[in-house]
Amino acid sequence: MNFASKVTRLVSTGLLMGASLLGVAHADTTVQVSETGLGLGQYTGGLQLPIQASAANFWAGLQTIKVTDGASSSSFQAFCIDPYQWSSGTPSTYTQTSFSPTFDATHIANITKLFNYAYASATTNLNAAALQLALWEVANDDGNLLTGGVKQTANTYASLVTATNSLLSSYGAYAGPSLYNLTFYKSGAQQDFVTVSAVPEPGTYGMMLVGLGLIGTIALRRKNRNS
Q1: How far apart are CA 132 and CA 62, in angstroms?
Q2: Looking at the predicted structure, is the pLDDT value of residue 219 above 70?
Q3: 3 state SS of 197
Q4: Do the beta carbons of residue 88 and residue 32 sit within 8 Å?
Q5: Which of 2, 57, 122, 175 has the most CB atoms around it within 10 Å of its CB?
Q6: Tell me: the pLDDT tens digits for 188-207?
Q7: Nearest alpha-carbon partner for 141 in 176, 125, 97, 132
Q8: Is 140 helix (H, G, I), strand (E, B) or coil?
Q9: Are 21 and 208 in contact (CB under 8 A)?
């Protein structure tokens, strides 16, 4: 690869990463989403959800979703953020979008804190299930498993209730950096999902600065040549 090609690649990489790090807004994307399997998590024993009038044994935890955008398909681990509808194994139309305006600023901040606080620990069935219940409470209910639309019953597994209540009482104190990018998949007819990816490592900022620096150097050299 010659020098000019290396410069072009570094500049392009820097610009793309810079756009990502600076949070450049992208238009909503219409995709097809289907639920293809279950990941870490567990059933609840007995739980009251708005989706059903009587308590039931619901799955709480990660699900695998297939997202198709045009001719391209990818699979992701996802949490349900919507306790009002069912997921489907049949591809349905979703919008890949931002949390706003579906959620207000306070709810968005709380959802972000919850993931920053708890997602790294969701590596066991119990912790993944607890994060799911806490997410339903934080995003769509009153933050308390004893009341509201998402509510424990006498049959809800005690260990799951304890783990969920621990998250609900602790996540709000998180004051560290934003660790994850959250992607929201919204449907009017099926369960809404959120997927998680890590925020780029600090070294990425260096690549962005290298790219921007090379742009400046090239521009200066061109200016000197033309003067």
Answers
A1: 8
A2: no
A3: strand
A4: no
A5: 122
A6: 999 999 999 999 866 544 44
A7: 132
A8: helix
A9: yes
Name residue 113's amino acid: K
**DSSP structure class, residue 146:** T
Q: How far apart are CA 33 and CA 67, in angstroms?
A: 5
- At residue 138's C-alpha, the angle toward residues 19 and 102, to 5°, is 55
- Extract the tokens encoding 109: 């901040």
| Token pair 């999902």: residue | 193
Nearest to 38 by CA among 62, 54, 58, 69: 62
Cβ neighbour number for residue 165 with a 10 Å cutoff: 18
pTM of the model: 0.79
In tens, the pLDDT along 75-119 reads 999 999 999 999 999 999 999 999 999 999 999 999 999 999 999
